[in-house]
Model the fold of this input.
Amino acid sequence: MTGGLVLRSLTGADFVEARRVADAWFGHPVGLTMHRLFFDQLGPSGLRAADSADPGRMLGVLLGFASLAEPELAYIHFVMVDPEVRERGVARALYEEFGRRMFAGGCTRVRTLAAPQRDRSIKFHEALGFVGTVVPEYLGPGQDRVVLERALPFRAEAP
Done:
């Protein structure tokens, strides 16, 4: 990155660019984990990251929302960051801004999932203060997941 990070809410229009790079950024096919419907309907609570020096280039995406079933819970469906800018704080900035917005809206905790073999993802979340529990067959037979959760806010909010 050459400038500062610019974060804004996602829109349905961001889907095309995100879908184009998703499999490469994740390192595996994401299938319907990334569906246009999510961007159209949940995008306003998600975030897009770009470099202020090149705001047209997407550096990262976080798709998350406040739960209807558990109003105090924010849920992060997925996060992806351009491999060229990893380890530069993009994902952390996305998580912190999402957490700030969700906390301001009344959420007191945040949850996400990771496959047990995704060590890098699990370590990243643990570094942010998430605690994970392996739930066998969370997504069906043979589909164990680590359910990661932590309290909001990520940082102390000003009164």
Observations:
- The chain has a mean pLDDT of 92.
- The CA atoms of residues 114 and 121 lie 7 Å apart.
